[in-house]
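Work Package 3 committed the consortium to producing structural models of liganded targets before the mid-term review. Because experimental data for this complex are still outstanding, the team generated a predictive model from sequence and the ligand definition alone, so that downstream docking and mutagenesis planning could proceed in parallel. The input record is reproduced below exactly as it was submitted to the modelling pipeline, together with the SMILES string for pyridoxal-5'-phosphate.
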Amino acid sequence: MQPFTGSFTQQEALDDTVIAAAAEILRSGRLHRYNTAAGELSKASELEQAYALYQGARYCLACASGGYAMAIALRAAGLAQGESVLTNAFTLAPVPGAIASAGGKPVLVEITEELVIDLDDLERKARATGARFLLLSNMRGHLADMDRLADLVRHYEMILIEDCAHTMGAAWNGRKSGNFGLAGCFSTQTYKHLNSGEGGLLTSDDPDFMARAILLSGSYMLYERHGAAPSPEIFERVRLETPNMSGRMDNLRAAILLPQLERLESSIARWNERYRAVEDGLSAVGGLVLPRRPEAERYVGSSIQFRLPGLSRSRSEAFVAACRALGVELKWFGAPDPVAFTSTHHSWKYVDPQLLPETDHVLSTLFDMRLPLTFSVDDCRHIAAIIAHCARDAASSTPEVAAAPRSVLAGE
Ligand SMILES: *Cc1c(COP(=O)(O)O)cnc(C)c1O
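The resulting structure, written out as tokens with the ligand in place, is given here.
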């Protein structure tokens, strides 16, 4: 088997239109979003208008990161100190982190084998806790049955905030991810669907909520200069009682996002072509389970997940090592310690420990891989062939004597 030599963390270079947009801002010297010449609309405001239009939302706030967008969304929605926030247990660390930073208490909800929030467990926990907030993380781009979820949110009178870090551009039955509740939170960090290094976007149709979010983001008293904001009288009611928690986006980052946003739809088509190439290459591997993608879901295949439910922990580790030896970097959610971006609820020690047997069961056999657009479709076929080869090997190999040290911990 020929090893793969591409990099799983190398995103596409930013092209000349992006470089020209950055150069223009640098030449102007006006990097702060409120530093505008007479009659000039800042790049941050332009981005807010363009993203609101793309998203189909009335309002948009550009801010410092996706995690920051979630934290101020919770505050702007009225989260009280110590209040419970329901959230799915399979997500990335900035999600429980945002709840903690807003003073909330994460209540973790199970996930299903399709990697989405378990709506039965959500209902149980909504009833048991009476929680007012659901911070739904559309982790790795998988959408739950959003019609049923929206019904539950309505029935239990919850406030829904969506983490769309992996679903920018995705939709359920034609409705964009991020438009199902009070607010959508997006990230423009390098590994997401738009790349400004760091950055976040918050969208909503609710004027009072958005006025508070804009004030929280550190608008000083310059909120009238925002690109997609409610009218000034809405701010009058809250302008003096809302703290400034500086987390603005600057014009340089906004400038480099604008041309990328124009190409987002074509990037999505390219991601999905790559996703399907890997999916095709893995679909016939015995014992390997790919998530089903529902008809109603329009996904963005910027990463792919699969499970190998038949593998023990030690074999899973050997499988990851075999793939790595052939140049394929997989993340495994069954590892007992967090590795880089990959962690589980067991390592969020600031959160009350919670029993999540379903989630643990799914995560212990779950593998995950990014699909950067620097990979060609042929690269994706090659990667799939390597994974298929190693998965067959792992399933058929005789029990290893030299099990990895972790298996001791796992109680196998
Ligand atoms: C990246 C990410 C975020 C937050 O993004 P940052 O911009 O890095 O704060 C939130 N949720 C998920 C699932 C993510 O992967």
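Reviewers should note the following from the model. The chain has two domains: 16-262, 264-409. These observations will guide the Year 2 experiments.
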